[in-house]
Every structure is written in C-alpha cells, then in structure tokens.
Design a protein that fits this description.
By secondary structure, the chain is of the alpha+beta class. It is built from four helices and 15 strands. The strands form three sheets. The chain has a six-stranded mixed beta sheet with strand order 1-2-12-9-11-14, with no helix packed on it. A six-stranded mixed barrel has the order 3-5-4-8-7-6. The longest helix is centred in the C-terminal third of the chain and has 41 residues.
C-alpha cells in the first residue's frame, strides 16, 4: 500500500508552524446484519466503529485491528485526517475516540468524525522547543519549566497544524513563552481566548540553591554543637580545679 503525503513548513523566527497532511486509502467495510456481531468481528481481527458528522447520516464500519494500531503509532493520531475506502466509497475522517475492554485492555470500538469542507474541530497540538542546547538562559543554569505540553486549538479540519514550535536561541532566564509569541495561521485560534496564557518559562535553578542552603545549615549546626561540647568540657575542668583548691 503506497502512502501519499504533503508537508508544508512556514517559518517566522523565533517560531514556526508545521502542517502535515497524511492521506492514504485504508480499506474498511460497512457493517450490516450479514457481517455478524461485534464480538465475531473482534474475533476475526476487525474492530467495529462508527463515522458521524453534522448534518449527515452515521455509518457503521469495521477496520482491521492492525491498521488502527499502525495509525495510532504515528504520534499524531487525533490530529491527522485519514482517507478511508468504505466498500468503494471515499470517506475523509478525523479520529475522535477509542474504547477499550475494561479487563483485557483490548481495543473494541472507535469513533470517527466525518470531515467536510466547513467542519470545525478542537484539537490538542504539541509544542516543541528548538535550540535548547544553544539557549543562553539554559546555558547559565536556568530550567525550562513547561506549563503546557499541548495547546488546544480550534480550526477547520483541513487546516490542522501538526505541531507548534518556539526557538529558544535568544531566550534568557526570566523569559516567558506565551501563546501570542506563536503566530497561528488564518482560521486557527486557541480555545482559551480570554487571556494570553503562558506555555513555558525559563526559571533560575532554585533547587540547587535550596540544597546548598540546607547543607550550610547542617554544617553550621554541627559546628555549633562541637563548640558547645568544648565549652562544657572547659567548664567541667575549671570546676574540678576549684574543688581541689578549696580542699
């Protein structure tokens, strides 16, 4: 089976957005009474599922378990548009939900959203930070504190970014990466719209400072204990000498 793909990268330093449309014809069958029960499909290595969409009739289908696992292993399963061939009819879908058996943890059902020209979706997109090895703040001992590894976006299903990227090449300790620092394409917006939320911060190495403070305190306490012990010994020696003289 040949895979067809298209990759488009838009870069505007220090951020970039990468679009990846992965489209391939995967064979599926439409479920009916002659096909058998869901249990019998699972025994044959097929997983039952449904395709639904606004203003359209839902369609019950089944897909090979090995194909689903292959798609799930791409790392962008829930943000990738997939072309299905259902008994010769083309369906463009977006994965929405997977269901597993509560005991065996086996995949037993899936829900796919039918993608149309005007389909709007909410998707969680990962954020990647570039040039961490060259970041001035990290070189000075700073720590990259990731507040959000995923950013939820709302957009047209045909315009889903595969990931968001931010370049740390000029970032210093104390800097914050906010959603406004990443230029989103037209028609794509964060679902949180009432504030300019933080994605990550570069913070000073507070953990190391606290460790050193604790060590200093322990050393001070030990020295103080030794001094007190020596003072008690001196006092005891003086008392013994006084007692001898009085006798």
């Amino acid at each position: 089976m040949r895979l067809k793909g298209l990759t488009l990268i838009l870069q505007c330093p220090p951020f970039s957005i990468k679009f990846f449309y992965f489209m391939s014809d995967f064979k599926a069958i439409e479920r009916n009474k002659d096909i058998g029960s869901n249990h019998s499909l699972l025994m044959k290595g097929l997983v039952p599922g449904i395709i639904y969409g606004k203003g359209t009739e839902p369609k019950k289908i089944a897909l090979e378990d090995k194909i689903l696992k292959k798609l799930m292993g791409t790392g962008s399963f829930y943000s990738t548009i997939i072309d299905l061939d259902v008994d010769g009819k083309k369906e463009k879908i977006l994965p929405k939900q997977l269901q597993y058996h509560p005991v065996s943890d086996r995949l037993i059902h899936f829900d796919f959203l039918r993608v149309q020209e005007n389909t709007k979706v909410n998707v969680e997109i990962p954020v990647e930070f570039l040039n961490q090895d060259k970041c001035p703040g990290l070189k000075k001992g700073g720590v990259l504190n990731t507040v959000r590894r995923l950013v939820e976006l709302t957009c047209n299903a045909n315009n889903i970014p595969s990931k968001l990227e931010f370049d740390l090449i000029e970032s210093e300790i104390g800097d914050a990466v906010k959603i406004s620092n990443i230029q989103l394409p037209e028609g794509v917006a964060p679902t949180i719209s009432d504030r300019d939320f933080v994605i990550a911060t570069l913070v000073p190495p507070t953990v190391e400072v606290e460790t050193k403070t604790e060590e200093t305190t322990e050393e001070g306490a030990a020295e103080g204990g030794e001094e007190k012990s020596e003072e008690k010994k001196e006092e005891s020696s003086d008392n013994k000498e006084e007692n001898k003289e009085s006798k």
